[in-house]
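Lay summary. Proteins are chains of building blocks that fold into shapes, and those shapes determine what they do. In this project we predict the shape from the chain. Here is one chain we studied, written as its sequence of building blocks.
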Amino acid sequence: MQYVVYVHLMKGILYYISLSLLFVLNKLPFFVLYILSDIIYFLVYYLVRYRRKIVRDNLVKSFPEKSLKEIKSIERKFYSVLCDYFVETIKLYGLSEKQISKRMVFTGVEDVNRMLSEGRSCVCYMGHFINWEYATSIPLHFNPENVVIGDIYHPLENKRFDALMKKMREQYGAEAITMANTLRRIVQILKDKKQYLIGFIADQVPTWESINYWLDFLHRETPVFTGTEKIAQRTQAALFFLRYKRVKRGYYTAHFELFAEDASKMPEYGPTNRYYELLEKEIKENPELWLWTHNRWKRTRAAYEQHEQLRAEGRKRLYKNDDPSA
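And here is the predicted shape, written in a compact code that computers can read:
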């Protein structure tokens, strides 16, 4: 009991120390934060070597046609952009609507408005392109009635930090929806006779239990989520891909690319296949902007088949134990 209280106390102290540090950093101008980013880059890349093996392996296998020199160049640019993402996210909290509108410019908005005006909800497929946190400013570019604008996120383990991140993501009017509550929330939106425009960062690694489809992505057989597709098809939503560009340090554009006016008219896995085609194209055009530290290919087909075999054996044993005639 004393140990639990001690751990809880230490977590609380660490939170308030971190919060104080973040508050101080948040008040610094961007040019100072970018100097800090350069320092962090040197430490993370050359000294700590944070996830260098994962990044190098991901890049080499994703771009077999590139030389080692080209791979290293992408690698260094990626770590530099990643450190910029860190300081930009710190600065994002409390950033005025005028400032964020200059730093994140959206195009293709007219296509989204057209779909909404026709009474169709919109699913916006996104990837882990830096800086994806800036996409939470989407509501500043729309003013439709009866439309809920939101983004899906995975809650942090630390509840205090999770509440802070949630507040930051909702500061421009978006609704932060947890992954576990996605379908329930969308059903409620539709019950309330409203539409939705929701962003899904859909390129994450699915859990073993949620794997039901594999495709070729960046030269590797890849397990993917299909939940976004199922929600879109069930609700007859229009499908968009958010295409990112980095104009210069701290300034981005994001284009809404319409690829289906009605998801329900596409074949099974059609939306998912198209999303990954667009995602791969975008990664090849701007490789330094994608999150290479993410261990995207940690689940292999062989490991999945072994996992499924163990699950099947476990179900057989459970059935046998529950069978009174056994």
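What the prediction tells us: The first helix runs from residue 2 to 26.
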